[in-house]
Amino acid sequence: MNDPYIRTAKSIKQPPATFLRRLTHLGPGFILSAAIVGSGELIATTTLGAHAGFVTFWVVIVSCLLKVIIQIEVGKYTVLSGKTAMQIINELPGPMINRARWSSWFMLLLMFLKFLQMGGIVGGAAIIINMAFPSIDVVLACFIVVVIVAPPVIVGYYKVVESLSLIMISLFTVLTFAALYYLKYTPYDFSFQDVLSGLQFRLPQQSVLIAIAAFGITGVSGEEIIYYNYWCLEKGYARFAGPKEDTIEWERRAKGWIRTMKLDAVAAMIVYTAVTAAFYLLGASVLHARGDFPEDFRLIETLSSIYTTSLGPGVKVFFLIGAFMVLLSTTFSGLASWTRLFPDIFSQLGWLNFNDVKLRKRWVAVLAVVFPFCWALLYAFVKLPLLMVLSGGIVGAFILFIVAYTAIDIRFTKTEKAFTSGFAYDLLLCFSVMSIVFLGGYALWSLM
What we know:
- Helix content is 75%, strand content 1%.
- It is an all-alpha fold.
- The protein has a two-stranded antiparallel sheet.
């Protein structure tokens, strides 16, 4: 049975030599985009805009731009080493607890806390089902979502995940930009000065908690940088470079596939930054002006108003379809990523062997059913979708600290000189890490 995580001489492929050829090998970043748009942009970003107005626009822009350099550094080491995310994280300096390092146990704890976020996303999709079919109870609708997302993850491989994720976000993205454009014909039109006012690095005290959650969840979050490792491996970036050799030919291939990976990460970053900005400006211009904040069962109804305000009440049905597809794509891509990550964590803890491809696929199938069922069950008990999603953003900020530490460890202890990217790159990486630490520290201080 072929294993996309194993590099052999037979798996070697020459990297694309031109920009246009590299474009045909993109994909992993857009799987992340499907996850990002649903929870970060649709819910957290618009909520921050609704509460703070234009003033915290900088938070979501910085969140999108800062973290991609860390994603690239981890992705580069993925191509060079062929190691999974948790194999890399389990190599971080620090004490061992039983058979694994502290970092693996900490990741396990944080990912269990992320269950709340996924429950909130499932709940959001369920609310849309209930709005379309009032006879279907929201809790029952949660389990309908579970039935929808589990089978493709059980039977699907990389291509299925990539294709479905891209299709699900494309239409809704177009609808979002249309809604933003047509705001100029409404009383909620905004000016360039309004946008500039949001780039002055101010953070109102009353918006700190939502800003922390938005920073942790918008753009590529800490856990999504980890997910990116698995999709790079399954796409073939590391496998096509072949087993590591001390030869000029291997170095050339590895650098070629690293260039492709970098283009993939940057292209996805451009897309989700633009979409993030659009969502934020819609929330800041429409919802903030009205004093209408997304919350609880009114979450989806409130969010729909930012579309119907500029595009008319007739567009609500398209919003509901689009929002459902986006939340479904987030659940789907998130589930596909979780079913890779957790067996890898269990492997580092010594509970199973991730390299046993049959065993790994069996675990993927089991977790593809168990996880969404747990998410639905959590929503049935908590029933606060916005709070659940924002809590995941706060947990994601702590995961981001681990990922930032991993990137620094990779660059300064593991990366060979032939694959370093120069002083300017190192400066940008260190600036990104320090900014994350500073913003996290400032946020925690503000809450005291």
